[in-house]
Amino acid sequence: MNSLNFSTNYSNETGTGNLRTLHENVIWSVILFVVVLEAIIGNLFVIISVFRFSYLREEISNLFIVNLSITDLSTSIVVMLSSLGTFIADVWPFGKFWCYFVCAANYCLIIVSMMTLCFISIDRYVAIVYPFYYPNKITKKRVICMIFYTWFQGILFSIIPVLYHWIEFDYWEVICAISWYKEREQALYYVIFAFLLCFLLPGLVLAYCYCRVLTIAHQQHRRHQEQRNNINSVYNSSSTKYSTSSKAVKSLLIVVLAYFLCMTPFSCTKLYKVSVDEEKPLPNYMSLLASIMAFCSSAVNPLIYGIFRKDFRHAYKKIWMQIIRRNSVEASSTSHNNFPLVTNYNIQQP
Questions:
Q1: CA distance 117 to 115
Q2: DSSP characters for 166-206?
Q3: How distant is the alpha carbon of residue 127 from its chain centre?
Q4: Would you state the pLDDT for residue 278?
Q5: pLDDT on residue 248
Q6: Cα gap 195→335, rounded to integer Å
Q7: Cα 348 vs. chain centroid, distance in angstroms?
Q8: Transmembrane ranges (predicted)?
Q9: CB-based contacts of 244-248 (< 8 A; 24+ apart in sequence)
């Protein structure tokens, strides 16, 4: 099957006789373009900030944030730009190979994001509940191993639909995905197993860790307020070193809530499609809105860091100032080259 037949035939089938109008495609293209642009620029800022500024590199847990930003950046470039192309063409114009690749990449990156959020919660749990053991428990080597595991699990689960050829382009999700209606019996066990290991278990761990973190952080705050003047200075300095990292808990908790807010509609539509008969299809625009909200999850994290974390906000400002100064210098240099000074005047006196 060539790429044209693959994209056109499937878009008409999944559209159930209804296709988007040109006006609708233009509107959704503009919305998605804004989301993609913000996701690319924002996540690049996060990655550059951590590797450029030593005070961000010193906090090992920021490696998880870098991994999350790399995941979001990859989603925006590979998945979201492909979906933007489908809005413009109103079909899947990139061929079957890229369709399979995008689908695998999408599921892989979603799993990596979820597992990274889970490991971030574990990191914050150890930092707040066991601050004096944190340097020995959470080392850079262990963090890197956990990051590698997120990608291993993501790749492992994303390759299965490719091997079994479950993938087709979904016109209303504007993305290549598993054909749940056609592959329900074969994919059911995969969905259950993936849901348990990639979402339910990490979600339970995440919920437990943050509940404990918030409880302990509140108790520590009250205790430090009551005993501030009576605490030994050595104890206070060592305790502050790790208790100050609890300031990042608020932003990370908001990141988690934003992720679930954006991904819940997408997950619910998937569960509906795999569990409900094809004769009761999901309304078209529910699938479309669910995909757009899922894409937004890759764009909101840099905004959250900039709003709630002073260290990242400071890094953002420095990077912006450097960009502005560099552009000013280049503009000044260009203006100087376009209007060279006249060095030889031949003036005749009357």
A1: 5
A2: -EEEETTTTEEEE-TTTTHHHHHHHHHHHHIIIIIHHHHHH
A3: 24
A4: 65
A5: 61
A6: 59
A7: 71
A8: 26-51, 63-85, 97-122, 143-167, 187-211, 248-266, 286-308
A9: 245/59, 245/61, 245/124, 245/127, 245/128, 246/124, 246/127, 246/128, 246/213, 246/217, 246/220, 247/309, 248/61, 248/124, 248/309
CB atoms within 10 A of CB 96: 19
DSSP per position, 20-59: --HHHHHHHHHHHHHHHHHHHHHHHHHHHHHHH-HHHHTS
The per-residue pLDDT for 329 is 76
List of residues 6+ apart from 263 with CB closer than 8 A: 110, 293, 294, 297
Cβ neighbors of 49 (< 8 A, separation 6 or more) are: 56, 312, 315, 316, 319
Nearest to 147 by CA among 174, 172, 119, 110: 119
Q: What tens digit of pLDDT does each residue of 86-140 get? A: 999 999 999 999 999 999 999 999 999 999 999 999 998 998 888 888 999 999 9
Q: What's the whole-model pTM score?
A: 0.83
Q: One-letter amino acid identity for 259? A: Y
Question: Within 13 Å, how many C-alpha atoms sit on residue 257's CB side?
Answer: 8
Answer left, alpha or beta for residue 342, where phi above 0 means left and psi between -120 and 50 means alpha: beta
Q: How far apart are the first and last CA of the chain?
A: 87
Residue 62's nearest CA partner among 1, 129, 122, 143 is: 143
CA distance 177 to 11: 12
Tell which CATH classification among 2.40.340.10, 3.60.21.10, 3.40.50.970, 1.20.1070.10 matches the domain 3-315. Answer: 1.20.1070.10
Cβ atoms of residues 202 and 118 within 8 Å: yes
* Contact (Cβ atoms closer than 8 angstroms) between residue 175 and residue 161: no
Looking at residues 316-325, what average pLDDT do you find? 90
